[in-house]
Amino acid sequence: MLRVCVRVSSAGALAALILFGALVSSLLFSSPAAAYRASLVVDADSGVVLHAEQPNLRSFPASTTKMMTVYMAFDALRAGRLKLDEELPVSVRAASQTGQSLRLRQGSTIRARDAILGAIIESANDAAVVLAERLGGTESDFAEAMTAKARSLGMNRTEFRNASGLNHPEQVVTARDLTILALALLRNFPDQYGYFSTRSFVHRGSTFNSVNGFLANYRGADGIKTGFTCAAGYNLVASAVRDGRRLVAVVLGELSRGDRADSIARLMDQAYAKPDPKIPVTLRDIDPVRTREPDEPAAGVISPACASIVSVPGMPRAQGGWSVEIAGTFNTKAKAADAGRKLMRNHAAVLGGAMLTTIERRKKHRPIVVGLEEEQATAACKRLRQAKAYCVVVSPKNLRAAVTPASAKVRKSPPAKSPSAKSK
């Protein structure tokens, strides 16, 4: 739920605040059975908020990250620091990216225009890294520049650590921040925005079709970007124009590709059907810096697409339903289990529960510690991140969406001894 926190110093101010709260509440359309973690709909011309649910909650961006990667490329094109027909080199790092790709080979080149189209249409991670290294020297330096640009646009709770959106525990966005970015792309690069409407392109004889099904199936849709990782869930930033009115909508943390498209369509339909509020609330009004809204840590989503659960020996169960994904992603179940057990031994003071491994559709395995209390899960991830270890908090709702009771038969084993005091 959208929350607004401000200080008041008089009865009149308090009355104004109560009225403002009522107006904000009137904006929040009911969304029955919504599974997403955050959503926002705004009128693109006025910036008026038409719907909001947890718009400032930190979430993982997945490939919506590439909106900023492309923004930086558009900026470089306008400044003359990049040319559309420029041939960009493909490094070892770029060619080795996992997930969606253009299958670029180390030592080859790709035109800047094709790299931009690849990042948008195919959501290609290798193309995003090629752009990052061309514009920033290294991907990490480019990510710092992305974060600085985000701050300059008013994206106050966004942090970038890579150009692709591959999961990193410190790479976070909010629905409000992504809306600001979408509006900035529309406003600052009207001639280039058409790239986000393109449904296919050809690179070196291969045709790549858009992964954004919403673009083809919603009347008036003309962009902009999808995203998916197991930790992020299914994200979508969308824009549509009907009868000359443009709306921009964001859904973060849905549980399937179809769910995110259905949620966006429902929210946009509701917004188009409703009149504008008599006293508008804008993106500036819900800026968490101005409202001093609490800044909660990002929590992960384990999508059913990732969720064939296999039991491995672990720790005894605790009573809670929260979980933490630890250690990262591995090619085999054995490696995932070994890495998970090592972290559980070294951090037994904060990691109770039992350990499972999930297997993704791409045959990647992730260790997850289940059966924690919320406070314990949050503390565990804080401790692991301080130790430079990967950790993502997973809520009970998101874990239940992925795990069926029959698949989670966990063998109990004696607890590991508590480590000494020395103990994305």
Automatic annotation (TrEMBL):
UniProt-annotated stretches for the region Disordered: 402-424
Q: Which Gene3D superfamilies does its entry note? A: DD-peptidase/beta-lactamase superfamily
What are the protein's UniProt keywords? Cell shape, Cell wall biogenesis/degradation, Hydrolase, Peptidoglycan synthesis, Signal
Q: Does the keyword Cell wall biogenesis/degradation apply?
A: yes
Q: Which InterPro entries match?
A: Beta-lactam/transpept-like (IPR012338), Peptidase_S11 (IPR018044), Peptidase_S11_N (IPR001967)
Tell me, what is one Gene Ontology molecular-function annotation carried by this entry? hydrolase activity
> What family is this?
Belongs to the peptidase S11 family.
Report the protein name in the record: Serine hydrolase
